[in-house]
Specification:
Number of strands: 5
Radius of gyration: 21 Å
Number of helices: 13
Structural class: mainly alpha
Bound molecules: tryptophanyl-5'AMP
Order of helices and strands: EHEHHEHHHHEHEHHHHH
Distance between the termini: 28 Å
Helix content: 40-55%
Largest sheet: 3 strands, parallel
């Protein structure tokens, strides 16, 4: 990793360990993280500091962090090629977030749709962290001078804000930050709930059948797809107003690599029952090796710890370079 650092484009991304990882996380982001490992210098984080914007239970949070670490590794993150660390173990993140918050406007943060959505959902706990969360995220990315940030479509607005903050800071102090680009996949960027296809598939979906988890056993995955909401037309085609079918087609396309037209041809004259079974089977096969690998990894907590401690240390070293530069430019005495 350290050798690669200089010669390749830097990729940075992160995921919140706020529950089990979903099919949406996988197709929208993590699958691309895996694909990018050979061509880029990849740095990934478990964004555990981000999760406490919503109240967590201590023991559950601890378990979720290790589970998420093992799950992401099971997806194919190779710790020999990429850095995969835990955000709260690297103090530069919280520190840069404070500095950058003084270069981010209240109005900019007020416009973030995720803040509006989450404050509506957690009306009893609209804490300051929920509001300043995008600044912490900007700091995550900018600390590593990332070129590309592979994320799902829901993070686009946060990446734009990151670019604005970086450009503003560079405008004041010279070239301190690389201005990153979002990398949003063509297929799978926005996987919707299987029960309400107008809403994003989410870890916190109240309807358990709406969300497929990476570690769901095959029979559970099949049951969720069989119950997926569709429409009364009984024709597999991609069209406006067919949100449920469009979503299933997008998932099938992302997993099999087929175009919408190819999918329409494959299921011409067949009903939704056949189609749902095919989507379920394709997803089961895609996730099977991940679940098996996870079962293996989670048994060996010592190995997992060895992996993240090593990565934490390198992440600290890399990120300190940026943090110190920022502090110096602002006028702190180092
Ligand atoms: P998080 O944990 O909500 O999601 C992790 C990644 O999964 C993508 N994603 C989806 N993609 C497609 N369909 C869906 N239904 C779906 N749900 C989630 C997200 O776009 C994301 O890429 N703020 C971030 C974590 C973060 C981060 C960062 C990301 C913290 N610091 C720095 C990039 C760079 C978040 O909450 O993602």
């Amino acid at each position: 990793m350290e050798n690669n650092e200089v010669k390749k484009d830097v990729v940075f991304s992160a995921i919140q360990p706020s529950g089990t990882i979903t099919l949406g996380n996988y197709l929208g982001a993590v699958r691309n993280w895996v694909k990018m490992q050979d061509e880029h210098s990849c740095i990934y984080a478990l964004a555990d500091l981000h999760t406490i914007t919503v109240r967590q239970q201590t023991a559950v949070m601890r378990k979720n962090i290790l589970d998420a670490y093992a799950s992401i590794m099971a997806c194919g993150i190779d710790v020999e090629k990429s850095l995969f660390f835990i955000q709260s173990h690297v103090h530069t993140h919280a520190e840069l977030a404070w500095l950058l918050s003084c270069y981010t406007q209240f109005g900019e943060l007020s416009r973030m749709t995720q803040f509006k959505d989450k404050s509506a959902k957690h009306a009893d706990n609209i804490n300051a962290g929920l509001f300043t969360y995008p600044v912490l995220m900007a700091g995550d990315i900018l600390l590593y001078q990332a070129d590309k940030v592979p994320v799902g479509a829901d993070q686009k607005q946060h990446i734009e804000l990151t670019r604005d903050i970086a450009e503003r800071f560079n405008g004041l102090y010279g070239n301190v930050f690389k201005v990153p680009e979002g990398f949003i996949p063509k297929n799978g960027a926005r996987v919707m709930s299987l029960q309400d296809p107008t809403k994003k598939m989410s870890k916190s979906d109240e309807n358990v059948n709406g969300c497929v988890h990476l570690l769901d056993p095959p029979e559970v995955i099949m049951k969720k797809f069989k119950r997926a909401v569709t429409d009364s037309e009984a024709c597999v085609r991609y069209a406006e107003g067919k949100d449920g079918v469009n979503n299933l087609m997008a998932i099938y396309s992302a997993v099999t690599g087929q175009s919408m037209e190819q999918i329409e041809n494959e299921f011409a004259g067949k009903g939704y029952g056949d189609f749902k079974t095919a989507v379920g089977e394709a997803v089961i096969e895609e996730l099977r090796p991940i679940r098996e690998k996870y079962e293996q990894l989670i048994q060996d907590k010592g190995y997992l710890e060895e992996c993240y401690r090593k990565a934490d240390e390198i992440a600290l070293k890399i990120s300190l370079r940026t943090l110190n530069k920022v502090k110096k430019k602002i006028g702190f005495v180092l």
